[in-house]
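Q: What would this chain look like folded?
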Amino acid sequence: MTPAQGEKVAPNSWAEKGIALETVVSLFAGAGGLSSGFAAAGLTPKLAVEIDRDACATYERNLGSSPLQADVSHPETVRSVASAMAGTEVSAVIGGPPCQGFSTAGGRWAEDPRNRLIFSYFGIVDALRPRWFLFENVEGLLTSGGGKAVVSLVKSFLERGYSIRLAKLNFAMFGLPQTRKRVVILGNRLGLDFELPLATHSFNSGKHKSSSRLPASPSLKEALAGLGEAARTPSFRVPYRSERAANPYDALMRGAATDVSMHYWAASDLDQERFRHLGPGQTMKDLPEYLWHTSYKRRANRRVMDGMPSDRRGGAPSGIKRLVGDLNALTITSATTREFIHPSEDRPLTLREAARLQSFSDSYEFEGNAVSQARQIGNAFPPICAEIFARQLMQADAQFGSGAAINVGPPRLIDYMLTEAAGMSPALRATDEALASMTCNQLPFALAAE
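A: My prediction, written as structure tokens:
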């Protein structure tokens, strides 16, 4: 059982009971990006839960265990998970609920039913009472519902006895070759103060950059180096350009592989004409209008309530975009192989290239059709980033056996970071003010003013 608030915990008392940071449960496990990163750190999940059949098959193929295929929001799933872990002290629950409702690429409706899955996460947390949890979602979470969504989320963790840190991070800071901004909430019910992982790399995707003396995260060109010429046939396996890796990231992705699957592309003659007209960084709006997609024309010229066309407001979609080889890639999504054009070749990115940019090794195989594979890749937590979080969690948890007694005080929001920019939008400022009041309040959370 967890120590009560205010109780002094003797050094190594958990270790003496045989409790170690080793029992992990992965929710919304997807294709296994988060789980494989934890496994690389020595924390292979004992149980994973995922609703998508193809993602379950991908997970089993690559991690060697079969997830529970179930809907986390269903009460029966909670009972099944609790039964499976009965008698086991759970070290950590990890996972990122589906986030399309909060995504800036979507409508971001606060009442979107998909967002209910976020709060279903708590059903499992209540049932398992893990020492730690790791929660990940898109940056749109911070302003959804005028900030009420993330404030409610933080309150829910605090009410359950967890002290937490919250931050919006660009995963390029961990050596990922793409800009990928995500909200991460990490917490424990041990009364431990802790830090989130520090940056290991600087990065530059054009719009988003962080200059420092840290080594640069791989550029798009570096991340894709070494892969052979993309095929036009899905079933064809493609050998590497040479036996020797082109750079350290290429070597990391190769492992012991000698060739790759999923490295193919398809495009109509009209699409290839579009590609030929695009220079680095250019999008659909830079093409002659006769080459615009019909859907792009419709969306680019839509008007909002004040009558101004959205293309004058920066609201029009890019449609397709040629990436810049010397920069980090843009955020990989399920639409990457339809929308992102190779920096120097007149073709879209392949599924294997998208997987590489998400840091899946070249030996990682994805089940299902191309649409399903693209969705699994785009929705994943990048494995190399997951491993960094796993090691940070292990290091923080080790404080329990460090020789110093732990004072278990009231749960609290230790700290939060919503942006590294100098300014904030009005919506983000509202979230900031709400969270600031929670960090400053010294009363036990249950007595804090709403």
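The chain has two domains: 8-210+383-447, 220-379.
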